[in-house]
Structures are given as structure tokens and as C-alpha cells.
Amino acid sequence: DVKVTQSSRYLVKRTGEKVFLECVQDMDHENMFWYRQDPGLGLRLIYFSYDVKMKEKGDIPEGYSVSREKKERFSLILESASTNQTSMYLCASSPLWTGASSQLEQYFGPGTRLTVT
Amino acid sequence: QKEVEQNSGPLSVPEGAIASLNCTYSDRGSQSFFWYRQYSGKSPELIMFIYSNGDKEDGRFTAQLNKASQYVSLLIRDSQPSDSATYLCALEGGSYIPTFGRGTSLIVHP
Questions:
Q1: How confident is the model over A12-69, as pLDDT tens digits?
Q2: Which of A38, A31, A37, A43 is nearest to A4 (CA)?
Q3: Is B92–A41 a contact, with Cβ atoms under 8 angstroms apart?
Q4: Are A44 and A34 in contact (CB under 8 A)?
Q5: What is the DSSP letter of A80?
Q6: Residues B48-68: pLDDT tens digits?
Q7: With contact defined as beta carbons under 8 Å apart, do B3 and B26 qualify?
Q8: CB atoms near residue A83 (< 10 Å)
Q9: Which one of A41, A106, A113 makes the best mutation probe of the B interface by having the most chain B beta carbons within 10 Å?
């Protein structure tokens, strides 16, 4: 059974703190993604990675960074948390595109609801 | 910028009816189209994908793709209250960066 896990379901941090969100997948997927989801705005891609130590900016990378030191683990870092980063953060993974599959065959983790006060 | 448009709803249908969810997109280069279901408080889960024009059926679900008109639809036959969720349309263009619509809320009432 495929599985994507995230380190916390709920997190409360103070403005200015450095925040680490961890994501681990056990499916040996090459691709991993970080999204945030806000009411009325849908899913927005922050960063993605298609290989270890590789990363690509998504639509809203400002204020975030990522790290992928191992294939199964993709971390999202908020360098200095701000209140406008209060959101639901979703991690996803997908297999390498082969022509028979797609990077959009994504498997999502349960999400981390982050509140920055 | 690729855009994916969905009516936010809610779309309300009676139990047993056909629910029709629609999605239009702006990028003619889009190749792959996906439907995700998201229950309240949960993360999205993939339910169907379609690459070619026409219909693709999987149980009570049918995805329809019309690339010339740039729309993709999801039909749910014999709708059940357990189908009540938000349905996200997603597409992938040549850059392999996914784009999601904002979702349509479906309510199936007994």
C-alpha cells in the first residue's frame, strides 16, 4: 500500500521562527512536490523535485526553500515564518514519467495545517 | 500561465442521479488530464486520468476529453452520498509542471 507521511498534522509557530515540514514516501518515487492549499485559491505548487538534490520552483516559491538529500524525503523550510504562510501544506510524490504514467499520478500525504501567530 | 477553470459549485444532485463535473483549460499543449477527489479535511486522491480524446470508463466514473474544445468532464453515475466531496481537475502540459483547478464541490443528497 502506497504511503506518503508528513511529520505533523497540526503545527503552531510564531512569526519569525524557522519551520521545517518533513515528508517521507515509501514508494521509491522519483518526483516529490510541496503544495499549499487555501480556501478559494485551490492547490498551489511551491516547489518540486525530480531527483535527489534537484529542485525546481513552482508557482509560489517566495519565502520557502526545500531540501532533498535522500530519495524518500523532501523537506519544506520556511526561513522566517509569517502570518500569510498560515495554510494547509500538502506533500505529494509521483513516479517518473514513462509515457505510460504521468507526474500527475500523485499520491498525497495527509497534510500539515500550519498556523503562524 | 496555464489556467484550469472549474465551477466552484456546490453542485447538488439527488442520490441515484448522474453528476456532471466540468473543467476547461487554456493551454492547447496540455497532454494529460486528471480528476482528484478530496473529502472535507482530507488530502486529494486520484480517481481517474485520461490522455486521449473520447470517453474513459471506470466503474461508476466516466472521464470525457475534448481537446478541440479544451474541456474535460467527469460523470458519476448512480451518485451516492459518499460521493459528496470536492473534485479537482488537473492537467499536465509539456513542462511536466502540474496545474490544478480550484475544484467543484459536489453534494449528493438522499
A1: 999 999 999 999 999 999 999 999 999 888 899 999 998 898 999 998 999 999 999 9
A2: A31
A3: no
A4: no
A5: S
A6: 989 889 999 999 999 999 999
A7: yes
A8: 10
A9: A106
Question: Which of A56, A90, A105 is the closest to B43 by Cβ?
Answer: A90
First-residue to last-residue Cα distance in chain A: 37
- CA-CA distance, B86 to B90, in Å (whole number)? 13
Answer whether A43 sits within 8 Å of B100, measured CB to CB. yes
B2 vs A94: CA distance, rounded Å? 21
All residues of chain A having their beta carbon less than 8 Å from the beta carbon of residue B103 are 42
The C-alpha cell of A56 is what?
525546481
- The label of the residue with cell 510564531 reads A14
Q: Which residues of A touch B45 (CB under 8 A)?
A: 108
